Amino acid sequence: MLVDGQPYRTIWPHGDSVRIIDQRHLPFRFVIAELRSVSDTATAIREMQVRGAGLIGAAAAWGMWFAARESGGDESSLRRLAETLFATRPTAVNLRWAIDRQLAAIQSAADPVEAAHASAMAIAEEDAQACRQIGEHGLPLIRAIAETKHDGKPVQILTHCNAGWLAFVDYGSATAPIYAAHDSGIPVHVWVDETRPRNQGARLTAWELSRHGVPHTVIPDNAGGHLMQHGLVDLVITGSDRTTRTGDVANKIGTYLKALAAKDNHVPFYVALPSSTFDWTARNGITEIPIEQRSGEEVRWLDGEDAQGEIIAIRLFEEHSPAVNYAFDVTPNRLVTGLITERGQCPATEEGILQLFPECRAGRANSGT
Ligand code: MRU
User: Fold this and answer.
1) Are residues 160 and 212 in the same domain?
2) Are the beta carbons of 245 and 282 closer than 8 angstroms?
3) Which residue range(s) make up the domain with 241?
4) 125, 146, 173 - which closes a domain
5) Are 314 and 248 part of one and the same domain?
6) Among 125, 154, 178, where does a domain finish?
7) Which run of H or of E encompasses 297?
8) Could you report the per-residue pLDDT of 47-84, keeping only the tens digit for each?
9) Rounded to an integer, what distance in angstroms lies between the CA atom of residue 281 and that of residue 366?
10) Which residues line ligand 1 (CB under 6 A)?
11) Cα of 131 to ligand 1 centre, how many Å?
12) Is 241 a catalytic site residue?
């Protein structure tokens, strides 16, 4: 996508290293950071310099290129380095998917470093292309709603957190149909949930949409239900960090409440995801998907820009009040109107999903494409 007229992806190789957009500084500063090792990559994922399911997978893939270099052909050292990457964040299944794919590529190669490089390139490119296809498959949904509107009124879409191009290598999942609609001249307006505690909606989704010229408004997390009751939301599209083979969706904390409000107000609730985000081994999202718990300090402290343009951190409440920080929740499939994948739309049911991905009937790890 374009940043000030220049095309960027979120991660790319640069000589012996890998470059990323360091998302901790957005929207106030646009900072490119350099990763040179497994340790740099693990830190970048854990500290959320890179985040979002697809990008976590792509970063881990490049981390495995470093692992192939650092292990010097020693199998147990390679596995230890893979575990270092795997331990960074538990919920987005793209992490395990990318690491396993890299291990298979490295172990069967005459030149493991070269193989890991080629495979990381392929994983990143497939991620971008899957998101582009999600855009194509989601576009008819938005177009159909636009056709019911009069006087050029925009299609009102609510999204949660950041499932935009910053969460992937390019295009995004939830945002891909939105960008496709906007680019084809359909008027859209996006309600952007701020997404406490780290505010990926306010900080990242709003930044992306504004760079691309998509009309949007940031709302407090609690406002969505009210907007839906007043007919101000036509459609919800979110992303996913892990979706079971039965269609239960783990996504950023607060997604479940939006799905409940959408159901109560007859607003369609869609989830956009590439197949690398399916966990083909899991059937029950609530009992089987590990939910990351991050530091309560992310709830207590907020950082942002002061009136002088300085980045400062402020404490929101007293030290002696404990804070808890569950990063994700699970939306049961009964609340999901449909899924948008790189192969098309389907109901959030095991049969619906397997119609699109028949090769995963037997429950193998991931479809790959
Ligand atoms: O904690 P994050 O920022 O890595 O969370 C991921 C997200 O941004 C959302 O949950 C998103 O909707 C799914 S990732 C494409």
Assistant:
1) yes
2) yes
3) 135-360
4) 125
5) yes
6) 125
7) helix 297-300
8) 999 999 999 999 999 999 999 999 999 999 999 999 99
9) 9
10) 51-54, 161-163, 167, 173, 200, 238-241, 251-252, 327
11) 15
12) yes
